[in-house]
Amino acid sequence: MSSSIEYINEGVKTTAKKMVKEGEIFASCTFASLGLDPTLCDQLRDKMGFEVPTLVQAQAIPAILSRRHVLVNAATGTGKTVAYLVPIIHHLQKSTRRTQRADGTFGISILVATPGRLLDHLKNTSSFLYSNLHWIVFDEADRIFELGCGKEVEEILDHLGSRRNIHVKKDNAISSFGFPQQNLLFSATLNEKVIHFAKISLENPIMIGLDAGDSALEFQPSERGRFLGQDINDEVQPIRKEKSFSIADYKIPTQLVQSYVQAPCGSRLTVLFSVLKYLFERESFEKILVLFSTCDAVDFHYSLFGEFKFSSSESESRPEHLFLKCKIFRLHGSMKPEDRRTTFQAFKTEKLALLLSTDIAARGLDFPKVRCIIQYDPPGEAIEYVHRVGRTARLGERGDSLLFLQPTETDYLQDLQNHGVSLTEYPLVKVLDSFPARGRKQFVEKLVSLESHSWIMFLQRAVESFVAAEPGMMKLAQKAFCSWVRAYTAHRGELKRIFVVKKLHLGHVAKSFALKQQPSVVGKSFKKQVKKRKRDSRQDVSSSKKRTL
Ligand SMILES: Nc1ncnc2c1ncn2[C@@H]1O[C@H](COP(=O)(O)OP(=O)(O)OP(=O)(O)O)[C@@H](O)[C@H]1O
C-alpha cells in the first residue's frame, strides 16, 4: 500500500510529492531540505546521530514550520518528539528579540507540564505569565484522555484563549513572534475523545498520518480524500455516534510480530520463566521488558528471577547456577525517583537485560533495542495494549510482543480484533519440549494439559521449594498475591466480563506466585470483596429498575 504525501515548506516554497511504502520509517530527504536552519541540522547529525528524518518528521516539520495547526497520528517509536521539538527550536533560535522578565513563560522557553498541574498554575499563580505563549503541544493526546484529564485540557484551552469554537479576540492569539499561536496535537491512537479535542483545539490543521481510507474523522463528501498534508474543513463537524473506531485508528508498527500465549493460572509463573530462558538463550534476544499489574508483583519476580538457582542435571553433585543469566532490573512507581532514573539509564545502556515493570514503562519511554514486550498481566483497554507493545519495534527495528492470557480470558483477543489488532498463538509446547525431560517420559503421546508437562511440573516444584525455604521471598510472594488479586478485581466496564473475578481459582493464583498454599488472610479479604461486588451489582440492578419504573 502506498500513499501520497504533500510536503509544505514555507521557507523554500517547494511542494514535493513522495510515495511512501507501508512499513518504511525513514524519508529519503535531508533535514536541511525541510527548511530547517543548517546549524540545527548539523546538531541533529553530530550530537544526536540523526542523519535523515523519519517519515513522520519529514511530514510534520515543514507543516509546523508553515505555522499551521497540525494533527499527527503516527505509530509508537516513529520519532514524534523530534517532529515537533525541532521546528519549535528552529523558531526559537531564529528569534532575535531580547526577552524581558515581564515576558513571562517566554523566559523559560519550553515548559513541560501535566494537564492538572498546568491548569492549577493558570488559575492560581499570578506570576505565571503566558501572554507570549506561541506553541501548545498536546503530546500523547490519547493518554491525556485515558487518564481522565479531558476536562482539564479543555479548561486549559479556555484559559489560553485557544478553544476554536469560542470567540477569541484576534490580538490575544498573536504571539511576539508576530504570527498566531500554533496548536499541535500528537497521538499514536485516535478515538472519539481525541477527535473531539482536535476539532475544538485545532484551527484549519494540516493532518498527518490519516488518509481517506482509514480516517476516523467524518467529513462532508467534498472533504473526503483530502487528508495527508491537506486542510480539514473549517466547520466543526459533529462526530457520528455510530462510527466505530478501528484498524488504522490504532497504529501499530508493521514489522511487530504479535503473539499470545495461553497459560493456565497455576502454570503462569513457570511458563514465563521458561519463555524468558528460551528467548534469551535460544533466540538470543538481548533485551526484554515484562509488564506486571502491581508494584508488589514486580518486587517479587525481581527477587525470584535474580536469585533462583537451578541445577542443569538431575545429579546432586552438579553445581547450581542462576536460572536466568541476564542482568535484571525493576521499575515501578513506589521506587525513589533517583532509583528509577538509575534503572532507566542502566537498562538503556545494558546489552543483555531483563526489565520487570509496571505500566510506568508502558508509554512514552524510549529504551533502545528492546526486542520483546511480554504482557504477563494483561492490559486494560486495547489502547493500553498498543502503547505497551510500542516499547519495541521502534524506528523500524524488529520486535516481538507476547500477551499472556489464561484460558478463561481469551475473549480479550476478540476485543483486540475489534480494533484491528490480530495475534497469533505462540508455539508454547515447542518451547517447553526444548527443556530437558525430568522424572518421567517427556514425549507423552498426547499432552493432556500444560500443567502436566514434565518440565512445567519439575520447574513448579523447584520454584515452590525455593520460595518456601526463603522467608523473605515467601513474604514478597504473599504480598504480591494479595495485590494481584486486588488488581484483578479492578478491571472496569466491558473488561469485567472477560477478566471474571469469580472464575479465579485462588489456589492456582497462589501457585503462580510459587506458593504451595493460598494465604488464608487473603482468602477472607478476597471473599469479602467478591461479596461486596455482588451486593453492589445487585444494588445497581435494583436502582436502575427503580429508574425505569
Ligand atoms: N531522525 C531520526 N534518526 C534516528 N533516530 C531518531 C530520529 N528521530 C528520532 N529518533 C529516535 O527514535 C526513537 C523514537 O523516537 P520517539 O520516542 O520520539 O518516538 P515516538 O513516536 O514519540 O514514540 P511514542 O509514541 O512511543 O512516544 C528515539 O530513540 C529517538 O531518539
UniProtKB/TrEMBL annotation:
Residues 525-536 have a biased composition (Basic residues). A motif (Q motif) lies at residues 29-58. SUPFAM superfamilies: P-loop containing nucleoside triphosphate hydrolases. Residues 29-58 form the DEAD-box RNA helicase Q domain. Keywords: ATP-binding, Helicase, Hydrolase, Nucleotide-binding, RNA-binding. It holds the Pfam family Helicase_C. It is an enzyme of class 3 (hydrolase). InterPro entries: DEAD/DEAH_box_helicase_dom, Helicase_ATP-bd, Helicase_C-like, P-loop_NTPase, RNA-helicase_DEAD-box_CS, RNA_helicase_DEAD_Q_motif, SPB4-like_CTE. Its EC number is 3.6.4.13. It catalyses: ATP + H2O = ADP + phosphate + H(+). Residues 274-432 form the Helicase C-terminal domain. Residues 52-208 form the Helicase ATP-binding domain. It comes from the Eukaryota. Residues 524-549 are annotated as: Disordered. GO terms for molecular function: ATP binding; hydrolase activity; RNA binding; RNA helicase activity. PANTHER family: RNA HELICASE (PTHR24031). Belongs to the DEAD box helicase family. The Q motif is unique to and characteristic of the DEAD box family of RNA helicases and controls ATP binding and hydrolysis. RNA helicase. This is ATP-dependent RNA helicase. It comes from Cucumis melo. The gene is LOC103498955.
